[in-house]
Structures are given as C-alpha cells and as structure tokens.
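Form 7-S
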Amino acid sequence: MKTYANWRGDLDDYLQVGDEVDEEMVDYFLNILPPACWTSNLVQTGEPHHHIGGRATYSTFRREGSHWYYAGHCYRGQETPPG
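Output:
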C-alpha cells in the first residue's frame, strides 16, 4: 500500500495505476482544493493534470469496498484513463 506519509516529490513518480493508497492520501486531495469530482467511490483532484483532445484529465482515486486505488489521470467523472 502506498501511503501519504511516505509520498515525496512528484505524484506520478510515486504512484502507478492500480496502486492501493491509504485514506490519508485521498483525504489530502479532498482538502487541498475543491475536488473536480467527489462521490462515495471516486475522488478527482481539483486541478487538471493535463488535457487530451481538449478535455481536462484529473488525478483519480477510486474505491472498491473499503480500499482506495489510484486510477491514473482520467476525464471528470471517469475512473479509466483515456486511450
């Protein structure tokens, strides 16, 4: 499991799609800016990471049961990276 406490530097260097993350990391991204998307099973950062085809993508975390996973950079409201 990847933890907020162990994260240093760039998020893309620390996380790979599918990595399990602790709830503290998800809470961090909920609290630094208003999220782009926030449901019971999906959290997307408030700042776009980049744009693909004119659409913004966001760092995305998805929940399965009681576990959170990094889903990569996804369009708003989605949990699968484009392409």
